[in-house]
Amino acid sequence: MYERRLKIFLAMVAAGMVILLARLVHLQILKADEYRQRARDSLLQDEPLPTARGQVLDRNNRVLAADEPCYDLCLHYQMLTQNDPRESQWLRVQLARIRKAHGVDKDQARAIYDDRVRRTWELAEELSGASRAEIAEAARQAIDRIRAWRRRCNVEMLAEELQPHPVVTGLDEATAVRIRMRLKDMIGASIHPSAARRYPAGRSACHLIGRTGPVDESELEEQNDSTGGRSEQQKLTLYMPGDSIGKTGVEKACEDLLRGRRGRRWVQRRTGTVVREIPAEPGRDVHLTLDLDLQREIATELARPGAAVVLDVATGEVLAAVSLPEYDLNTFGQDFTELSKELADLTLWNHAVSVRLPPGSTVKPVAALAGLHYGLLDAASTIECRGWMDSPQDTKFRCWIYKRSHGSHGSLDLVRGLEQSCNCFFCTLGQRLGVRRQVEWMTRMGFADPPGTGLPEEYRCILPDPRTEDTVGEARYLAVGQGKLTATPMHVANAMAAIARGGEFRSPLLIREFASRQQVRRLDVTAEQVELVQRGMYRVVNVQGGTAHNYAYDPEIEICGKTGTAQTAARKIDQDGDGVRETVVRSGDTAWFAGYAPYRNPRIAFAVVVEYAQAGGGATCGPIARHIVRLCRQRGYL
């Protein structure tokens, strides 16, 4: 019996030894390399390396947006946390250092420590303009977001306790130097190099350039989900809380190009030796077709709420796209509260591609091309103008000449119809075309789609629905740019460019890196048909009696154009907060002048619009357009 138990015991011991031996073989032979690497990694400190965002440049390589070196005031994790059990460990270390450096006892060391903490928080409050509690709370929230992000994305990085946490960002070098001189009297504070987005052009082209801002929760989820896998390289492309991301304009449209990729560094904790490093990759530069100097000069000339667009006829490149009012991109954060309250002139909107307005008579050349395309007009066709359509009492469909003098234009061909901007001529043409055919033609000319610049703010035009709105009245309105039709200045300028280049549509090109996306198509009209429209637009400006002759004629440049004055509903706001927009803040007409130059060899196309003007399109926008053409000649674009 005893021998049997002894054998069982020895067998169990032997089995245990075999299992232990097998485990040792597994750990020390089969998995030796893996565990050796884990041991090494535990002695390493993992640090993310920031990347630099690419620049935005104009056509002459003028910098419009760039990362500029700056400095951040950072505080130690323990300075930002309260009632943390780890604080006592950090506190003991700090007190020991003070006692050793100054040769003082424990109580004296604590007094020095408390004084340095006070100085540190006073500096942070002075630079940030916030209280200690507000600074600490904001930092704790940022740390919590990073922790949540790490768990969600399964990313290992330097622990929060060992990271410097920025509480004041964007400090210039002089300020950083002054702070460094004061750091010896503080504790837990440090200055670290950083970068801030700067916009040398200030207010100019602010809507086109756009702005950046901290990535929010929805953007984190959207951008990181699209990354796919979680390899080491892919983890470096993930957005972290606190990262900057393009919010508007080119900054947003070109986010993938501009952003770059962060790097990563592994440092030995004891020696500070860099063991391994994946360098950061800077973002790519983005090149615009915009001429910053021309943009500024046009903005000075326009000088009122509205927009002006200038396109290169041959290429479709956007030479200028002014939107007024403007704001300073460098101070947007400080100015946002006031800007967001501004509802009279919609300062934050890009009026060149986002604000849709009734185009008025600037759409008549488009209606003329539609009539020619569908065979309803030719060079010999005439339409009678009596000054009114149905009766003199019907105020909706009168010609402007009847409103002015109870007169009429009589019998007009297409060229004279454009020259005189005869409403009866084009209402009759619109009635013959109907809504469906006009919408079909305007779709071919790009009005049914966003312009194609790539800007996230651009809108398509609003067109009547032929299925439900193909009425005589809507057909008439559509041909004279009223009714349900609204368009952006970019659409109108691009329609002028298509006419100038003889019936070829090209979507506007603003971002050179997007050149492969440009749409090009031939419109189904003959050169002779387009020439009729071109001749009419020439006579608008260059013949006595043309509707823009007194305002836009230039004896040195043959400008072709079309005036437009569109009745526009007053802009109202909810001033008293009762949910009803009843306070009128702007009233008047939408004044337009659009066209191209020069007549015989078109080089530029343009559209100028002034919102809520108190005079017609010719008187308001004609002189502005003439000056814009002269500016383009001075800069070599004609």
What does the model show?
By secondary structure, this protein is α+β, with helices and mostly antiparallel strands. The protein has two domains: 239 residues, Penicillin-binding protein 2a (Domain 2) (Alpha-Beta Complex); 343 residues, DD-peptidase/beta-lactamase superfamily (Beta-lactamase, 3-Layer(aba) Sandwich). 41% of the residues lie in helices and 19% in strands. It is built from 23 helices and 21 strands. Strands 2, 3, 4, 5 and 10 form a five-stranded mixed beta sheet that branches. A five-stranded antiparallel beta sheet has the order 12-11-21-20-17, sandwiched between helices. A three-stranded antiparallel beta sheet has the order 1-8-9. Strand 8 and strand 9 form a beta hairpin. Helix 13 runs antiparallel to helix 23. The longest helix has 29 residues. The termini are far apart. The model has no long low-confidence stretch (mean pLDDT 87).
Architecture blueprint of SSEs:
Layout: H1 2-30, H2 32-42, E1 44-49, E2 56-57, E3 63-75, H3 77-80, H4 87-102, H5 106-128, H6 132-153, E4 165-171, H7 173-182, E5 189-198, H8 206-209, E6 212-214, H9 217-225, H10 232-235, E7 244-246, H11 249-253, H12 255-258, E8 263-268, E9 274-278, E10 286-287, H13 292-302, E11 306-312, E12 318-324, H14 332-341, H15 364-373, E13 382-385, H16 400-405, E14 410-413, H17 414-419, H18 423-444, H19 472-479, H20 489-500, E15 504-506, E16 520-522, H21 527-542, H22 549-552, E17 560-567, E18 571-573, E19 583-586, E20 589-597, E21 604-613, H23 617-634
Parallel strand pairs: 2-10
Antiparallel strand pairs: 1-8, 2-3, 3-4, 3-5, 6-7, 8-9, 11-12, 11-21, 13-14, 15-16, 17-20, 18-19, 20-21
